[in-house]
Design goal:
Distance between the termini: 114 Å
Low-confidence stretches: none
Oligomer: single chain
Number of helices: 8
Helix content: 25-40%
Largest sheet: 6 strands, mixed
Structural class: alpha/beta
Mean pLDDT: 85
Number of strands: 10
């Protein structure tokens, strides 16, 4: 039995004629300890998919199962890291993490919970910023706090909803390396949503592309058989990396997109000649020219002297 299963899952939003199917017949199996990346373009339904796994929303059809049991709501066995950090601005780094730990490890003593918080902040290299508020931190440091909070809950599955999407390129590259090192150390089951194919190839064991919406579904999976740890400097030289990247991009921009239907219609225009603005006023209509050239007539007038 797989750790996580999605069986024929579909989800729609809206009402009546305006109802739109976002996901259609999604099937997914994830084993314990896997790092799986789901790659898709913006608006394809990636956040809807991760929200279904987190239990924040329920499918219209199909089932989302954790160890064979239906997911009916959020739970500490699934920790979600958002793109926008979601930290409480009036709490310190330590207290933001402790808030989750106090709820998930109620059986532990106060000292054990404090040590637990410090251990995971050390894991993400934030031991020197324990008493700082989120407003005093950079974007990368805030995301480290969010990651420490999620890991400190000791979930069975770590859900990452484009966690590095709001960061600059240099900070994003640094955190990608740290995230891969943390995964190798903790061996948590990870499901990451991203729109960056290179990020998926750097971090994941498997990459599954999502077709373009509406009614998006999962495409054929790609196994990333590249040795770890992966060095981004030498990764581009790997023939396997280039082939995997080409396969994913071809699907996302080609077969993964729904064909557009082009409809050709004949427009029947009325038989009306347009006004000619180049005509000059005449002595018969000094204020404005005739509307059309067929209105211009040559008239000869005979004047007897």
């Amino acid at each position: 039995m797989s750790l996580l299963e999605l069986n024929h899952v579909s989800k729609s939003y809206g009402h009546g004629a305006g109802r739109t199917e976002v996901l259609h017949d999604v099937n997914l199996r994830i084993e314990e300890g896997e790092f799986v990346a789901i790659v898709g373009s913006s608006g394809a339904g990636k956040t809807t998919l991760i929200s279904l796994i987190a239990g924040l929303i329920q499918p219209d059809h199909g089932q989302v199962l954790l160890r064979g049991q239906p997911i009916t709501g959020p739970g500490p066995d699934r920790a979600l890291v958002f793109q926008n950090y979601s930290l409480l601005p009036w709490l310190s780094v330590r207290d933001n993490v402790a808030l989750a730990v106090d709820q998930c490890l109620k059986h532990a003593s106060a000292q054990q919970r404090r040590d637990h918080v410090l251990a995971f902040l050390k894991l993400v290299n934030l031991s020197a910023a324990l008493d700082k508020k989120p407003g005093q931190l950079s974007g990368g440091m805030r995301q480290r706090v969010a990651l420490a909070r999620a890991l400190a809950m000791e979930p069975r599955i770590l859900l990452l909803d484009e966690p590095l999407g709001a960061l600059d390129a240099l900070t994003r590259a640094t955190l990608q390396t740290e995230l891969e090192a943390i995964w190798r150390q903790t061996r948590k089951t990870v499901v990451m949503i991203t729109n960056d194919v290179d990020e998926g190839l750097l971090l994941a064991d498997r990459i599954i592309p999502l077709t373009a919406g509406p009614a998006a579904t999962l495409g054929p999976q790609v196994s990333v058989d590249l040795p770890r740890p992966r060095d981004r400097k030498t990764l581009n030289q790997e023939p396997c990396y280039r082939q995997l990247r080409r396969t994913l991009l071809d699907f996302l921009v080609g077969a993964g997109r729904r064909p557009e239907t082009v409809v050709t219609r004949k427009l029947h225009l009325p038989d009306i000649e347009p006004e000619d603005l180049t005509l000059r006023p005449s002595i018969f209509s000094p204020r404005r020219p005739p509307r059309r050239r067929n209105e211009v007539k040559e008239v000869r007038i005979r004047i007897d002297s």
